[in-house]
Each structure stands twice: as C-alpha cells, then as structure tokens.
Amino acid sequence: MNIITLTTDMGLKDHYVAAIKGKIYSLKKDAVIVDISHEVKPFNILQAAFLIKNCLKDFPENTIHVLGVDPEPLVNFSQPEESILPVIMYFKKQYFVGTDNGIFSLILDNQKWDGLWAMEDVLSQPELMKFPTKNILIPAACKLANGMKPEELGSEKITIRKAIPLTAVIEPNVLKGSVTHIDHYGNIVTNVKKEDFHRVGKNIPFTIYFRQKEYYIDTISLGYNEVPPGEKVAIFNDADLLEIAINKGTPENGGGANALFGMRVGDVVRIEFTPRGSRNTLESLF
Questions:
Q1: 88 and 126 part of one domain
Q2: What's residue 282's pLDDT?
Q3: What CATH number is attached to the domain comprising 73?
Q4: pTM of the predicted model, to two decimals?
C-alpha cells in the first residue's frame, strides 16, 4: 500500500484538488490518497506545518506527504544558491515532497532530517511552474510510491531555508505562549507544550490567563467532559499542546471558545505559577 497525503491551500471550491488527485491516479492507479487539509490559509506554511506535525505519528512508514502550500519554485540564475527548489525530505521514516520555502524547518522543529534531496531538473522546465503541485510535486511523489529512490530524483542537499516558529517564552514562574490554531470546534490550541508546563511548574498552583483578566482557568483536565457542557476547560490535547475549549461548544450552538473569549491566532496566553511561600501565596492569606 502506498499512502500519499495532501496538504494544500487550494480550498475545495475550485477544480485544483480534483486535478492533483487525477494526476496521482494517472501515475499510480493503486495509490491511497489521504487529505490532511485543503483549507490552509493561502501561503501560510506555519499553519500547514502545524497540521502535518500533529498527525505525522499516526501514519505508517514510507508514507509520502505532498506539501502544496506556497509551492512555486523560484529560480535565481544570477545567484543559484538563492533559488527556492522542490525538495524531497526523509524524516521519521516518511517522505515529504514540497518546495524549500521554510516549511521543512517547521516540520523538523529543531530535529535533523534523515535525508534531503533537491530536484534541480525543474530549472530547465519553466512550463511546470504554472501548477507546481500537480506538475512537479505529484509526479515526484508517485515516482517514490512506485519504488524509485530519492537520490534518483535529485541531488543531495545539506541546508534548508529556515522559518521562525512561534514558541512559548519561559520566565521565572511564568510561561507565555500564544494561540497557534483554532480548530473546527472553535477550540483554542496554543504553542505551550506539556513538557514545558511541567518543567516550569510541576505540582505548583497556577492560573492560565487569556484575553482579559476575567478569563482564566486554574485546573488542567484530562478531557472535555470533566466540566459541564458550556463550561470552559483546559487540557493537553493528543499532541500534548495546551488547549482551551468550551465543553460541547461549537460555532453552531452558541460559540466555541475562540468566539466566546474573542481569541484569535497570535493572541497571548499567560500562565502564572504560584510556588508555596511566594509573595502571591502570602497575600492570599490576608
């Protein structure tokens, strides 16, 4: 079985997604296609990387991920080293086919790839740039699925373009994160990792503040149903990221957490820890 996943910013209104799927089946009739998302905001590689990273562990070895967000290569003949080329990356026993626009660094998240190859043959085929996902990335993915080795498709590459991810900031007794994603339910997903939360304040009382001081939570729940429907809740989700939600809250039944709290991607979430014997602890006694 050859699984090819698709992550694009093409939406579902137009014919583009159908075209790339048709191209896959014309080149690999027995391919299994999985849509990660086609609703990535146009050219938003941060969002695309977030979606891919959060389901990566669920795919089997040798899955091939096509990254069709901001995929157009840039050829700089005067300074070839500045060109932005299509790339194949091997990481965690899976393949990633996309353009070196910074998205690979976001997927790696400071880890090292196991293999990296640049597909330089596109330099002599400018007509492929009209629809690079269909004309460049999909054929490469299908060749991999048909058993071709990545070194047959490109030359080894030793660097990638870097994009700067949003990371949580650790200060004494404070962890400051931000909203990185709002899902279909209106749940607020942050960049605060469970490991960082415990490193700063394991077994220490805390308060999570978001948007305004009157919105706060001082408990981490194991699941949404630990609070009554309509109540706010904080959990560490399946990716071990801090998530703020309204139990059973959705935009259709009165609003998800993002609407009720007025939260958007990029807004700050602040966690204040109150160790025993601190000034805040003492003040609470009087």
A1: yes
A2: 39
A3: 3.40.50.10790
A4: 0.86
